[in-house]
Amino acid sequence: MAFITLQGTLLDPNGSVSIGDELRFTQKSTTGSTLKSAVTLLKLTTLGNYYIDLQYGLVLVEYKDVKNNQFENLGVVTVNQDSAATTLPELLNAIVPPTDAQLLEFQAILADCVTQVTLATTQAVRSETAASISEAFANQLTTTELIASTATFAVDVVLLTSGFTVSGSGSGSWKQTGLTGQTPSQSPAQLGDGLLNDGNGNQWAITGSLITAKSLGAGLGAADDLLALTALIKSNRTILIDKAIYPCSSQLLFNGLSNFSIKAEKGAVINGNHALTILEFRESSNFSIDKLELDGLSTAGGSGNHGLVLYKCDDAEITQVKSTGIANSNILVYTEDVDTRHSNVNLNQCSTDGGQNGQLIVRMDNSFIRGGVAKNVTGSPAIGLQLKNECRESGIIGGSVNGATGVGLSFGQTSVLGVKNSIVNGVTVKDCGGIIDIGNANGNSINNLVGSNLSGTSVIIGGTSKGNVLTGIISDNAINAVVSYRDTASFNEVSIHSKGTTGSVVVSYQSGASNNSTYVLEVEDKTGISALSGLSSDLNASDVGNRTYYKKSGVEAVTTSSAVFVTHNEGYVVDASKITISLDSTPPVSGLFIDSINSTRFRVNFVGSAYTGGVHWSFS
């Protein structure tokens, strides 16, 4: 390795030795085995002495007095075979001028500095110009006038318009994007987004965290707001639909949107004067809709006339949305049977009026109707609130149904797969065909339902339904059976308070239903055997394991497929003459007989060969 040796003593200005001063040598070139930027530190001894073998190369020499905090640049020296210096002062006195390469580097650095100063000055002028323009046009230029304007504006300038078509309604903050050469004078409705093109073909984008419908030209009294609302929602951000009527000539349909929010002022109504869905989102996620009202204007729509539809969507919160004047389903959330499952869509305190379905969730996971209200649901199937087709871990919680001619609530299905592991709790049903209809549903929990003024059977459990538990059900004034088990329903359990029925049968087990248990609890305060008047059970001998348990003012009855056991717990002697039995057909041998087990318990028993017809019993 090549180097020169420097040694000697350094003195301060008054001739004393420089004790504790420091020297720093930095390589400015890669020479031999010494890399560029390598650093050597040297501290003077108590005698002011120094000694260093300084490697060949271009070397920056710096010096720091013991009384200073910073190194001082003494210069860059060239160390090579031509260096004759043996002391540090001799080396520094031999400093060579900068090379051409160094001069070029310094010139480039200086040029960069000049460029940055120029850019900063230009930007300051531009900002001042933009501010002057914004100030000059504020509350003067409308958005419509900006669309027509051929004025020249600086790139990135922001204009606050005074309104959309006239001042005072639909103002917006618009920023020039720098995109030029576009079709001149295009509105947001024409571009289908929160954009406009001015008269020169320069594009502008609306800015701000909240975009209003009127700022894009919707809700200002036009005959059709379809395109303006499309542009608003496609802006894909938080939007506010101002209080206004928004007529739409066709469906508002959006695909693949995410991370947006729609908020509506009270009185904001989208009118769908057509036979299609008013508002539909497909394959969208992470969004919310609040307080929006949809009105189908009672147009004679077909099966596709819905209010709000969410198809294959995830993670959506729909709150206080109102739908009316719809021919089919007012609010529909669904996934097809062949699709990947979707989840976490909630309908919160939404309300519907009319239509063939109120609020319906189909084949979704972890999705709920909470506090939903449905009324005046007619036609077919005329269901108020419904889960359908293998919904999982979902539910209907709270809310009410009034005037559904089919049934208030339903776990429905169009295939063999029904609702699983879901809940219904705390819903009131009035003036409907029944409280709830359950089909092909498994392992669900249904609690605290109240039905009144019902025109049909209160609770229907059919299809292959299995393992469903219903508790705290109150039925008032059911015309037909209070509970009916149909098809191959099995291992279901119902506990119901019956306030009365005008039909001849309280609980019905159709052929094929098996191992179902029904607990009928009378809530009216009556005593004596006569209190069981009107209670009855419809049995079939081919049904296996079905049980009906009656408890009414001290009288309990248990119905099986082969006998009826009745017990009076208050000590009254059973009067067999008050028992009435009727059969659907003649039994094969000797029919039925009644025998007393003790003074308070008797049995109505099958005899002879198995009887396969219906058995009806009641107390007078």
Q: Write out the strand line-up for the largest beta sheet, numbering strands in chain order.
A: 14-17-20-23-27-30-32-35-38-40-42-44-51-48
**If helices are DSSP runs of H or I spanning 4 or more residues, what is the number of helices?**
5
Helix/strand class: mainly beta
Shape: elongated
Whole-number mean pLDDT: 82
What can you tell me about this protein's structure?
With 620 residues, the protein is mainly β. Strands 14-17-20-23-27-30-32-35-38-40-42-44-51-48 form a 14-stranded mixed sheet, with helices on one face. Strand 49 and strand 50 (601-606) form a beta hairpin.
Question: What descriptors fit this protein?
Answer:
mainly beta; six-stranded parallel beta barrel; 14-stranded mixed β-sheet; single chain
Outline of the structure:
With 620 residues, the protein is mainly β. The longest helix has 38 residues, at 100-137. Mean pLDDT is 82; it is low at 131-139, 523-536, 568-574, 588-592 and 606-611.
Q: Which secondary structure elements does this structure contain, and how are they paired or packed?
A:
Elements: E1 3-9, E2 22-27, E3 39-43, E4 49-55, E5 57-64, E6 72-79, H1 88-93, H2 100-137, H3 143-148, E7 158-160, E8 173-176, H4 188-191, E9 195-197, E10 203-206, E11 210-212, H5 226-234, E12 238-241, E13 244-248, E14 252-255, E15 258-264, E16 268-272, E17 279-282, E18 285-290, E19 293-295, E20 308-311, E21 314-319, E22 322-324, E23 329-334, E24 342-343, E25 345-348, E26 351-353, E27 357-362, E28 364-365, E29 368-377, E30 383-388, E31 395-404, E32 407-412, E33 423-425, E34 428-430, E35 436-439, E36 445-447, E37 450-452, E38 459-462, E39 469-476, E40 483-485, E41 493-498, E42 507-509, E43 517-522, E44 537-540, E45 547-552, E46 555-559, E47 563-568, E48 579-583, E49 592-598, E50 601-606, E51 614-619
Parallel strand pairs: 11-12, 12-15, 13-16, 14-17, 15-18, 16-19, 17-20, 18-21, 19-22, 20-23, 21-25, 22-26, 23-27, 24-28, 25-29, 26-29, 27-30, 29-31, 30-32, 31-33, 31-34, 32-35, 33-36, 34-37, 35-38, 36-39, 37-39, 38-40, 39-41, 40-42, 41-43, 42-44, 43-45
Antiparallel strand pairs: 1-4, 2-3, 2-5, 5-6, 7-8, 8-10, 9-10, 44-51, 45-46, 46-47, 47-50, 48-51, 49-50
